[in-house]
């Protein structure tokens, strides 16, 4: 049985006078339940575009702007009349009738460094400072999926929160990828393996002959099992987390459906090719399989690295980097995987119950810099959503003529967080408690009602 969403303070106050009106306690609970939002989605697939994808090169092109703004590529028409996308995204152009494009994302507390902006993007909470040296800490806010695991965990046998295939970092590990002060029990099932690898699987504890599931209910028995298979400890997220939440680990060990989700060889070759035989492509396919198996929040990190030879979106043009060469890798990869994921979910009847979110930590500067690329720009960028009760074939908001600032609508990471939680049926004002037992709302934004169907 799933845990009930805790009351927000505002919701509690709104029904707090019910006893004065003669309501019994059961009637009061009924009133509270009606005050809660109804879930529009069973799961969220969060595609984090590490490095910050530029809106000028993707979903908010400015073909009439000067050369130094317009950029390197031409726009193309899409399935939605009047909605232009980059010419390097032809497959995405064919599915815009299933997308909700938000062109007015903005940091109200601008964070220009990757680690601080990344934390903001992964939690919906602005960090205390915009510092590239921001260190991962249990004092900072937990990841979205950890909050979902705390308030509305998945059914027995499935992991609520799964993340892969990278731990993202820029110098130091980016905060916001784990449960923080909620405790290790709510950390993601993290899989640091390449889903495109020939031998990809979920490293797991194997059950010796004679060791029945009932015996595994004993903490002593499972710790003995871990000791006997210590070589898995470094690779297996299940094994690493078993000391904090061994019952959950046992349920996954004895749940064939969830374990089978990691076996990508069960997919047709054509399906795997459709997603692309790349780390990111197969990661997106794995995300769909995990949602089918009961996971409720899946983080797929587009890249481990930013800049240099990494696949991330950080295209400054430093050190003689060929920005067009870089984008000629990034854009086709995005075109294939995003379109494949959305279409696959749609064809399987899963898109209505799954919210797909494609977003990075910020956008890129409206003007191309003297280095030949674009720098960090949190004042205006784009997010793309699909399914989960969002409007299809819809564009929300608009930016000015050079894509520098929103002119119509405004959405922040806080608002995106509130919208995702609301989609899953969680009250964005519900509270969790930090290490000092202080109540904190899970979101400090407002649900973007404009994008909801």
Automatic annotation (TrEMBL):
Q: Which InterPro entries match?
A: Alkaline_phosphatase_core_sf, DUF1501
Looking at the Swiss-Prot or TrEMBL record, what is one Pfam family this protein matches?
DUF1501
Per its UniProt entry, which superkingdom is the organism in?
Bacteria
PANTHER family the record matches: BLL7424 PROTEIN (PTHR43737), DUF1501 DOMAIN-CONTAINING PROTEIN (PTHR43737:SF1)
What is the protein name for this chain?
DUF1501 domain-containing protein
Organism, scientific name? Fimbriiglobus ruber
